[in-house]
């Protein structure tokens, strides 16, 4: 369970997860360059999904410096799990070139997910910080 603040780190990737009242944040920093990120991310995903039930979650990639394509698969798994549990989630990317590529991919793939919103800084996300 995520009480207040938890940080998960491996090989240059840092994920900070917080929850206060009905709002949660998952902030990614550093870089994710692992060929098998699921080994690290799957247990993190399980904990986050369980901890965020009943909350509005913002997943923030704006401070992430790099993410390889293997990481995208893990993130899609996270988003599908959040949607299945009906956890309203805003996913926000920076307006940098490399992040816009991932933003477009995530938007396309998550279009069918009812509880997931994907956008960039210029879209005014995350809503929970307005």
Strand content: 25-35%
Low-confidence segments:
none
Instruction: Count the domains.
Output: 1
The number of helical elements comes to 3
Distance between the termini: 27 Å
The overall strand count is 7
Secondary-structure-based class equals: alpha/beta
CATH architectural group: 2-Layer Sandwich
Q: Tell me, what is the CATH class?
A: Alpha Beta
Secondary-structure element sequence?
A: EEEHEEHEHE
Structure commentary:
With 130 residues, the protein is an alpha/beta fold. The protein has helices spanning 38-51, 69-84, 97-110; strands spanning 5-10, 13-20, 23-32, 56-60, 64-67, 89-93, 116-120. Helix 3 (97-110) links the parallel strand 6 and strand 7. The longest helix is centred in the middle third of the chain and has 16 residues, at 69-84. The termini are far apart.
SSE topology:
Layout: E1 5-10, E2 13-20, E3 23-32, H1 38-51, E4 56-60, E5 64-67, H2 69-84, E6 89-93, H3 97-110, E7 116-120
Parallel strand pairs: 3-4, 3-5, 4-6, 6-7
Antiparallel strand pairs: 1-2, 2-3
Describe the structure using short key phrases.
Transcription Regulator spoIIAA; 3 helices; 130 residues; seven-stranded mixed beta sheet; alpha/beta
